[in-house]
TrEMBL record:
The keyword Cell division does not apply. The keyword Nucleotide-binding applies. InterPro entries: AAA+_ATPase (IPR003593), ABC_transporter-like_ATP-bd (IPR003439), ABC_transporter-like_CS (IPR017871), P-loop_NTPase (IPR027417). It comes from the Bacteria. Keywords: ATP-binding, Nucleotide-binding. Signal peptide: none annotated. Residues 23-270 form the ABC transporter domain. Transmembrane segments: none annotated. GO terms for molecular function: ATP binding. PROSITE patterns: ABC_TRANSPORTER_1, ABC_TRANSPORTER_2. This is ATP-binding cassette domain-containing protein.
């Protein structure tokens, strides 16, 4: 049967996605085949369910290899997932499954609605530090002048000296790149911000500045899904903690309860 426009019928709306969620991951699976070793298959994600609402900061915890980075990369579509759904509610109110969007649609969403900050910035070649940060603002709807001002303010806040603003980001140190990355990720805050150990390379003063910036995202309604190596950062920032173990959700709850549970597989770095 065809509709009058001869387009495919819209997919059935998922019944189990809460009306208020920005991100709803359902039965998500991802495996890796280790061709270079012996063809062994690693189940990195084994049926993960997870919701994140606007203004909520959900921190993923669990030991190394639990699947935290893989989950963030599947949501950002750096990795194609192997099953399940990744429902994202756009600013226009449409529910889309990130797992099945085209590459072009993903590129659009990344610019406008998703931010992703990892330990490493892959700086675009031949672009200045200021340009990288202000372009992120423009992509999320700011006027060019306003984006430059906001980029300057964000760079000051994460203590990137003005003499570095015209330089190519490729020449920066690891910690400086990480701070440029967080400035770009938080300027004109996106609907969903994915953070994978965003303060791992920073000294204490810069770490504090970046954590302050992340803490203020709550007021803007940004939904945050994060991984932090240190539990103090989780305790301070997260509204909820989801513990992964071997690619499954093994516990979820408030930071104060989860982080003090001696039976959970957490990596302790206090
Ligand atoms: N690109 C990859 N190729 C092969 N295996 C991978 C890849 N990325 C992750 N894995 C494997 O998936 C599992 C989960 O890894 P990861 O998501 O990085 O864990 P975490 O971030 O919690 O430390 C691990 O067994 C890891 O070795
Ligand atoms: Mg990781």
């Amino acid at each position: 049967m065809t509709s009058p426009q001869h387009t495919a019928p819209p997919p059935a709306p998922p019944a189990d996605v809460p009306a208020g969620s920005v991100l709803s991951v359902r039965a998500l699976r991802k495996d890796f085949t280790l061709h270079t070793i012996d063809g062994r298959v690693v189940d990195a994600l084994n049926g993960v369910d997870l919701d994140v609402a606007p203004g909520e900061h959900v921190a993923l915890a669990g030991t190394s290899g639990a699947g935290k980075s893989t989950l963030l990369r599947c949501v950002y579509r750096t990795y194609l997932s192997g099953g399940g759904a990744i429902w994202f509610r756009t600013s226009g109110g449409h529910l889309v499954d990130v797992a099945t969007l085209s590459d072009a649609e993903i590129v659009g969403l990344r610019g406008r609605e998703f931010g992703y900050v990892s330990q490493f910035l892959r700086p675009q070649p031949r672009r200045s530090v200021l340009d990288i940060v202000s372009s992120a603002g423009v992509a999320r709807g700011m006027a060019r002048e306003a984006a430059r001002d906001a980029a300057a303010a964000a760079l000051r806040q994460v203590d990137i000296a003005e003499r570095l603003w015209d330089m190519h980001a490729t020449v920066l140190s690891g910690g400086q790149k990480q701070r440029v990355n967080i400035a770009a990720g938080t300027i004109a805050p996106p609907r969903l911000l994915l953070l994978d150990e965003p303060v791992s390379a920073l000294d204490p003063a810069n770490r504090a500045a970046v954590l302050d910036l992340i803490a203020r995202l709550e007021e803007t309604g940004t939904a945050v899904l994060s991984v932090f190596h240190d539990l103090d950062a989780i305790e301070r920032l997260a509204t909820r903690v989801v513990v992964l173990g071997r690619g499954r959700v093994v516990a979820t709850g408030r930071p104060g309860d989860i982080l003090r549970d001696p039976n959970l597989p957490l990596e302790v770095a206090r």
